[in-house]
Amino acid sequence: MTQRVTMQFNGEDLILETGRMAKQADGAVFAQYAGSAVIATVCTSATAEEDLDYVPLTVDYNEKYYAAGKIPGGFIKREGRPKDKEILVSRLIDRPMRPLFDKRFGRDIQVVPTTVSADMVNPPDILAIVASSAAVHISDIPFNGPIAGVRICALDDRLIVNPTYEEIDKSRLEIVVAGTKEGITMVEGGAKEVDEDLMIAALEKAHQVIIQLCELQDKLRQLVGKPKLPLQDSPNVLQNKDAIRSAAYGRMETACFVKGKHERGDAIRAVKDDLAAQYADQLADDKQMKLFNALFEEMEYEILRSSILNKGVRVDGRGTEDIRTITCEVGVLPRTHGSALFTRGETQALAVTTLGTVFDEQIFDDIEGDKREHFILHYNFPPFSVGEVGRMGTGRREIGHGNLARRSLEAMVPSKDEFPYTIRVVSEILESNGSSSMASVCGGTLSMLHAGVPMKKPVAG
């Protein structure tokens, strides 16, 4: 039986409906706002795996060209691999939801929000966040939600909830905020040098709306919600846990504060290897070894958290307000238009700027309509940057971090009228020990200035 709940935004109804479409999914919600609509589904695997130390969640947001009355361009007339925008929206949905699933559930979870109608006025990404949460909330999957997402824009002196594309283009602040009724769990966006008071007001306004959207999902669950599946409490217990913890804890307190990322890792490994050798017979069992490793992760987390909260000392000995040693070099590559090497502690970014013509602009063909960008930023995170072996390529992380750095810089990049060149910045992460996206911002600023780009102001992060 079809059930629906509604609430009003800006004179339009937001509708959440279930029971008419995708009925074989564990949870399915058809969400509509004005002329934009999203179908969000969630399914889970039939069997659970014990003692998982992560949540096996996948979010695959996708947009159909037919939603906007378009046919894909080029020779292939079928939607292909995910576009950058679809990956970024998938991350927007994943981040606020993932911490609210319980690892003890132990099953694969796949959330698939699909934009099936787009009015070219109201962005469907916020609708996808709400629909995805609602689909999980009414399903039988344990979930400590619901969550909701809201976009807030500052236009003149007004804060606008879920603005149109036109209002976003004119705004000086645009943020997406997600959270539960209890608080905010994610903020992402950009601004043109707004003050803290405006940002705080935007966050407060967003949370008021988030509460309303969560209550709307609660109403839908009251109508059609399925009983939640049980969590898998592990029958496995680490033998000799107290003895291992007692023997290792003091040594771990020393090892966790050894200077240098790799040296620290070696020191922690030495403690683990020593204890593992002492309990070799016990740890021959794979389940016991998994619990042994989990105990050491738990101790490391506890030691570092306690040190920061109680002593104000971080893992490398710095206080909570101390920054790592910074070095900046420009002109490190002889034949590029602009180059810079930015190093902060054990994080290092080689940023390279290339200038091109209007024919080098990034062209986007999606349901929002064709558009061009004259400022491009690409972020690369090869496995050698953390001393590991792995596959090369562009994944969701690279796209997400690159977008974060691009949004940080774009407000200070001159317009095409002021500087009629296409600007491409590539950030090659050569070393990483945290905050590589912000190293890309700093390196990107230096390399653009070295290339002669008349930035309005330098940007750092």
The total domain count is: 3
User: What would CATH call the class of the largest domain?
Assistant: Alpha Beta
Number of strands: 18
What is the CATH topology classification name of the largest domain? Answer: Ribosomal Protein S5, domain 2
Compute the gyration radius: what is it? 25 Å
Structural classification = alpha+beta
Order of helices and strands: EEEEEEHEHEEHEEHHHHHEEEEEEHEH
CATH superfamily of the largest domain: GHMP Kinase, N-terminal domain
End-to-end span in angstroms?
52 Å
The major pleated sheet works out as: 7 strands, mixed
Helical proportion?
Answer: 25-40%
Q: Can you tell me the overall shape?
A: globular
Strand content: 15-25%
Number of helices: 10
CATH architecture of the largest domain: 2-Layer Sandwich
Weakly predicted, low-confidence segments: none
Gist?
By secondary structure, the chain is α+β, with helices and mostly antiparallel strands. Helices cover 34% and strands 25% of the residues.
